[in-house]
């Protein structure tokens, strides 16, 4: 009888340990889930759903939602990143309207980190670019670049084409990083020419704007001046 009681006590203890381990694992998983920024891909299937989606878009700040695209037409998918604090509420709203949606990105932070690791080593080859080449400094337009890589490219362009480009520091960010602007023209000290101002990088999440500006810098403006003025620039 004593042996049976001892075995029962051991079994109960093991079950308690297992239960608490399971509970801890579940709570830890729940905490991790609650910290994730998720992206929902939502497709409105009717005019009513489209109007509701437009309402969410116009009041995105209230729902802690970041619309990556604007809802325009029925059956057009829209990507929305939702703050973890409001994810359940946001999902409940979608379910109430029987919206067609799924989670396209489960963890935005992990996706960004994975993309950073996956960046090919040649992404920053403009640092070692042969300036005797006529192709100009290298820049990989098949991926997004961080601020250090973009600034490095701007310095490389200025070094390659000093007669028609000049960098200026027009201010500093909250993190005390220099805000660069590149002046392109010929001659650089002639101020009576009409100018075009191109803004990029106003919002950190708008990655395409920086890439578009870099594309304009070399493919449009620099090549235009090289062609029009037939400059022979050597280092």
Automatic annotation (TrEMBL):
One of its GO terms (cellular component) is extracellular space. Its cofactor is Zn(2+). Residues 143-235 form the Peptidase M14 domain. Transmembrane segments: none annotated. SUPFAM superfamilies: Protease propeptides/inhibitors (SSF54897), Zn-dependent exopeptidases (SSF53187). Keywords: Carboxypeptidase, Disulfide bond, Hydrolase, Metal-binding, Metalloprotease, Protease, Signal, Zinc. Pfam families: Peptidase_M14 (PF00246), Propep_M14 (PF02244). The keyword Phosphoprotein does not apply. GO terms for molecular function: metallocarboxypeptidase activity; zinc ion binding. One of its GO terms (biological process) is proteolysis. InterPro entries: M14A-like_propep, M14A_act_pep, Peptidase_M14. The keyword Hydrolase applies. Belongs to the peptidase M14 family. This is Zinc carboxypeptidase A 1. The lineage of its organism: Eukaryota, Metazoa, Ecdysozoa, Nematoda, Enoplea.
